[in-house]
């Protein structure tokens, strides 16, 4: 149910310089979704009456994402004045004048924070009479975070940023998680007057704590037991640490749901993937995007699936596949490369060193070895010989190949598209199929073999070959 007394502000205007990237920090991914998407999803789960996002750096790219994932959010453009305090000041100005509830501020770069922790923060804030409540934690390494400075009576006095802190202040273990609840009046009264006299020349939201204290208002904190929940991502080392943490949670979730995952450390699963009970995932596997795996299937080792659908009891081994559909009991790999539009029906096989693209391979049909099959349809129960290449590209256009059912083509064929091979047809080894093959026909076009007896003895005398031939008695 919508909480009429709650507004959520997601701060997403920062530049993220520490990532040293052409991609905005908040669009770097973990578990298949941009950092900020995780925060937007949490904001959405709270069902607040008002959601606001503050943007500036690469604003169009962020706004595009926000409009898809949180369309109800009001987008606030931050001006040239930098700092989290300025960002919140502008967002509060965009709230309706008659809003008099609580404002939850979330840093856009704290992606692992869950809605349950925020509900706890909300409960703590509303149960007490503090004007502000912040989440704090004690990470193993507090470097980079604002330190929470308390008075001797334990009350919170102020927050000092890493770059402004003295050595003694830096020794403080408790840090500001970047997640706060304020009564909206506290924000309206004090944000405008925050100074920019600090190491970064920014308007710090964190200075609000001291301002509230000075005005006689009270600030409390809810310490979070597991520091990783509120870890911020500023650089790529923190990005990989957070991604590993989230992945471990995802893997464990699937294990408890009945999926065998042999090696959690080398298995990476996006949040958007769906696995059925009794799926087995072997080491070195990445499951990405909208991938769905049905019960009894075995994926891996060393397999990457992007947006794939895998049928029951199918096996996919040492394979790279994107937008492919694999039927029940089908087998893929080892060493297969399935490009978009590959559909392998039930009981089919795509084997070793086979590349496919826009290829529909019918029930029980097999492409077992060393082939390229593109823009092709194969009927049921057919076998494509080892080393077959579909020549689908004439240098300008792509053309289609159609192979019927119960076809047996020889090894090392080329199907020069457009071409059709009828039901039950055969082809000889080494055939270059340029013309349609009628149903039931045998296609051959390799020149008859000619053996020139004694050629080696006559033309390569004294070689190992000539000696071997002579010793065999058949020179
Ligand atoms: C901030 C806090 C710090 C806290 C830490 C927790 C301040 C001044 N410091 O530091 O006390 O320990 O988060 O992770 O708030 N942003 C804007 N507009 C701006 C600047 C930043 O919207 O002008 C956004 C960023 O996109 C980011 C968030 O605010 O999502 C935090 O900014 P960042 O620069 O990462 O702050 P920290 O230095 O990590
Ligand atoms: Ca940060």
UniProtKB/TrEMBL annotation:
Residues 237-257 are annotated as: Linker. One of its GO terms (molecular function) is UDP-N-acetylglucosamine diphosphorylase activity. It holds the Pfam family NTP_transf_3. One of its GO terms (biological process) is regulation of cell shape. Its EC number is 2.7.7.23, 2.3.1.157. Residues 1-236 are annotated as: Pyrophosphorylase. The active site is at residue 369. Gene3D superfamilies: Hexapeptide repeat proteins (2.160.10.10), Spore Coat Polysaccharide Biosynthesis Protein SpsA, Chain A (3.90.550.10). It is an enzyme of class 2 (transferase). UDP-N-acetyl-alpha-D-glucosamine binds at residues 11-14, 25, 78, 83-84, 146, 161, 176, 234, 339, 357, 372, 383. Binds 1 Mg(2+) ion per subunit. Its cofactor is Mg(2+). InterPro entries: Bifunctional_GlmU, GlmU-like, GlmU_C_LbH, MobA-like_NTP_Trfase, Nucleotide-diphossugar_trans, Trimer_LpxA-like_sf. Keywords: Acyltransferase, Cell shape, Cell wall biogenesis/degradation, Cytoplasm, Magnesium, Metal-binding, Multifunctional enzyme, Nucleotidyltransferase, Peptidoglycan synthesis, Repeat, Transferase. GO terms for cellular component: cytoplasm; membrane. Mg(2+) binds at residues 109, 234. Residues 258-475 are annotated as: N-acetyltransferase. The keyword Acyltransferase applies. It comes from the Bacteria. Pathway: Bacterial outer membrane biogenesis; LPS lipid A biosynthesis; Nucleotide-sugar biosynthesis; UDP-N-acetyl-alpha-D-glucosamine biosynthesis; N-acetyl-alpha-D-glucosamine 1-phosphate from alpha-D-glucosamine 6-phosphate (route II): step 2/2; Nucleotide-sugar biosynthesis; UDP-N-acetyl-alpha-D-glucosamine biosynthesis; UDP-N-acetyl-alpha-D-glucosamine from N-acetyl-alpha-D-glucosamine 1-phosphate: step 1/1. Residues 8-194 form the MobA-like NTP transferase domain. Homotrimer. Catalyzes the last two sequential reactions in the de novo biosynthetic pathway for UDP-N-acetylglucosamine (UDP-GlcNAc). The C-terminal domain catalyzes the transfer of acetyl group from acetyl coenzyme A to glucosamine-1-phosphate (GlcN-1-P) to produce N-acetylglucosamine-1-phosphate (GlcNAc-1-P), which is converted into UDP-GlcNAc by the transfer of uridine 5-monophosphate (from uridine 5-triphosphate), a reaction catalyzed by the N-terminal domain. HAMAP family: GlmU. This is Bifunctional protein GlmU. It comes from Amnibacterium flavum.
């Amino acid at each position: 149910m919508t909480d009429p007394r709650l507004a959520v502000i997601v701060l997403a205007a920062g530049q993220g310089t520490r990532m040293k990237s052409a991609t905005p920090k908040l669009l770097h991914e973990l578990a298949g979704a941009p950092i900020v998407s995780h925060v937007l999803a949490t904001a959405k789960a709270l069902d607040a009456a008002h959601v606001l996002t503050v943007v500036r750096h690469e604003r169009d790219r962020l706004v595009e994402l926000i409009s898809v994932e949180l369309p109800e959010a009001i987008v606030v453009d931050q001006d040239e004045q930098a700092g989290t305090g300025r960002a919140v000041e502008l967002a509060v100005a965009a709230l309706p004048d008659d809003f008099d509830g609580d404002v939850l501020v979330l840093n856009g770069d704290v992606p692992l924070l869950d809605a349950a922790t925020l509900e706890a923060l909300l409960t703590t804030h509303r149960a007490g009479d503090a004007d502000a409540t912040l989440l704090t934690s004690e990470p193993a390494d507090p470097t980079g975070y604002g330190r929470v400075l308390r008075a001797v009576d334990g009350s919170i006095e102020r927050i000092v940023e890493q770059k402004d802190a003295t050595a003694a202040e830096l020794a403080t273990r408790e840090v500001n998680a970047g997640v706060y609840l304020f009564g909206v009046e506290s924000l309206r009264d004090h944000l405008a007057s925050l100074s920019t006299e600090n190491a970064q020349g920014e308007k710090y939201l964190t200075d609000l704590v001291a301002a509230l204290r000075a005005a006689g208002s009270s600030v409390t904190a809810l310490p979070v037991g597991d520091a990783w929940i509120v870890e911020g991502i500023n650089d790529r080392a923190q990005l990989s640490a957070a991604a590993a943490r989230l992945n471990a949670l995802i893997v464990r979730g699937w294990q408890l749901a009945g999926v065998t995952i042999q090696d959690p450390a080398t298995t990476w699963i996006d949040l958007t993937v769906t696995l059925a009970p009794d799926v087995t995932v072997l080491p070195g596997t990445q499951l990405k995007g909208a991938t769905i795996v049905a019960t009894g299937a075995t994926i891996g080792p060393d397999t990457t699936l992007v947006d794939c659908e895998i049928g029951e009891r199918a096996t996919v081994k040492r394979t790279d596949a994107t937008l492919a559909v694999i039927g029940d009991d089908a087998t893929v790999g080892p060493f297969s490369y399935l490009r978009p539009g590959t559909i392998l029906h039930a009981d089919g096989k795509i084997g070793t060193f086979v590349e496919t693209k826009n290829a529909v391979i019918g029930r029980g049909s097999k492409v077992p070895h060393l082939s390229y099959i593109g823009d092709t349809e194969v009927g049921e129960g057919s076998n494509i010989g080892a080393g077959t290449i579909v020549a689908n590209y004439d240098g300008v256009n792509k053309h289609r190949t159609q192979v019927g059912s119960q076809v047996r083509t020889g090894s090392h064929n080329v199907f020069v598209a457009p071409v059709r091979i009828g039901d039950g047809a055969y082809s000889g080894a080494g055939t270059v199929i340029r013309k349609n093959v009628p149903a039931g026909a045998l296609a051959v076009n390799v020149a008859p073999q000619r053996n020139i007896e004694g050629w080696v003895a006559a033309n390569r005398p004294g070689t190992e070959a000539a000696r071997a031939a002579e010793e065999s008695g058949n020179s």
